[in-house]
Structures are given as C-alpha cells and as structure tokens.
C-alpha cells in the first residue's frame, strides 16, 4: 500500500495525484497511422 491519494476534478474521469505539484488534463484529438514506418502520429489542429 502507498500513501498516495487520488483527487478527482471537474468532469475529468481520470484521477489526479493529490500530492503532485503539477497536474495536467489531456485530451486525445486525432491519430494518423503512417504505414511507411509503422508509426502513429497524434495531432491536434488549431
């Protein structure tokens, strides 16, 4: 068992680490598969 605590904010489904000094919420937007080198490129348009 650890002494880490979860913290839920707004409408975000994933928990944050309450003791962390930096907390980020991210959103997946677009995924482009690149067949030539078997890679996935993630992109967020402006």
Report what the structure shows:
The protein is mostly beta strands and 46 residues long. It has one domain. It has no helices and 4 strands. The chain has strands at 6-7, 16-17, 30-34, 39-43. The strands form 2 sheets. A two-stranded antiparallel sheet has the order 1-2. A two-stranded antiparallel ribbon has the order 3-4. The relative contact order is 0.21. The model has no long low-confidence stretch (mean pLDDT 88).
Short recap of the structure:
By secondary structure, the protein is an all-beta fold. The protein is built from no helices and four strands.
Structural features:
elongated, two-stranded antiparallel sheet, two-stranded antiparallel ribbon, mainly beta, 0% helix, 46 residues, single chain
Terminus-to-terminus distance: 42 Å
Secondary-structure element order, N to C: EEEE
Strand content: 25-35%
Number of domains: 1
Helical amount = under 10%
Q: Mean pLDDT across all residues, rounded?
A: 88
Largest pleated sheet:
2 strands, antiparallel
The assigned structural class equals mainly beta
**Helix segment count?**
0
Enumerate the strands of the largest sheet in spatial order, edge to edge or round the barrel: 1-2
Using DSSP, what is the number of strands? 4
